[in-house]
Amino acid sequence: MLTCTDKDHILKRTIVGLPAHSESATLSQVTFGRQTGAATLMARRLEGGHASISASSATVEHMTRVNEPVTGAFHVPVMSAEVVEGLSLRPGGAYIDCNVGEGGHAEAILSARQDVSLLGIDLDQAALDSARRRLSDYADRLELAQSNFSEISQITGVRLFDGILFDLGVSSLQLDTPERGFSFRTEAALDMRFNPETGLTAHEIVNNYPQRELETIIRQYGEEPRARAIARAIVDRRSITTTTELADVVKYAVNWSTRSRVHPATRTFQALRIAVNGELDNLEKGLMGAIQALGPNGRLVTLSYHSLEDRVVKTVMRREASVCICPPGLPICVCEHTQTLRLINRRVITPSQEETRSNPRARTAKLRIAERM
Fold first, then answer.
1. Staple partner for 231: which of 155, 215, 257, 303, CB 3.0–4.6 Å?
2. Which CATH number is 7-167+280-372 given?
3. What is the pTM for the complete model shown?
């Protein structure tokens, strides 16, 4: 499982408007969160000591995909209006986007009120680069950190926030960048890492794990009923080096008919991605850290896209919204549990039909909202 523990990756802060790899800028002062009610970022030149937070007109107006020409189209965030409403933005409030991605939800939050600040977290440096360009107009109210959201407690320290958003799963940028290996629709190396600079790859799992362990991963993380046949076919066909090779192996293993609407490799690729990035373990840790980072009446908002993610979110929220978590049948409470959340929506919120028509990737989204006690 990939868990970000290296201090260089736990908190690698970036300065809005400057390239992430630039050595000419450093974060000299951050006063952010409930301590000040707003964020102040200052980047100083190592030589000369002059503050410089700027962006060219090209980066203000456009987002550049990896190895693609500049376009004028930004990624459309899922259920952005519902997310902003769920966060219940406060005057001078401080917020966290735990999967800032290309900055779609962050832009919706920052543009909704001119006095709120935001900390954006993402493990993917390419996503942070895109977010930096998109959000350059909000540089004075924005902080970006390269980290796994499971490390949210280390990132926030003693600061308290008014709302925290988790937009889970793989991003459009990752899916649409073939060389990242998340999609079976184009040929690429089997990678699937959110941070391509560190950790286990899908290639290592596919080509090195025992058949029984492969079967468990595919069944547990992909909810794939034909996991045994797929794992057997993978082991028989080793070595498998590309996404399209793996997709072909899965198709052969399940005797796929092209009449099926869903590609048979969908669940296998989901399972491998979750295993590579340790997503479910990191999610529960991140949610518990987020609850501790929320101030009184702060909002926790989650967007999940498959049942495994949603199950973790639902379990954590319901447990933390309970007065007692003792097993049924005990005559007295012995759990000593303290309720930390109040559920805002007991029924999951889903996208409108209009949104799913215009943005097909929103079709499986489930939104949940809870409030800190």
1. 215
2. 3.40.50.150
3. 0.80
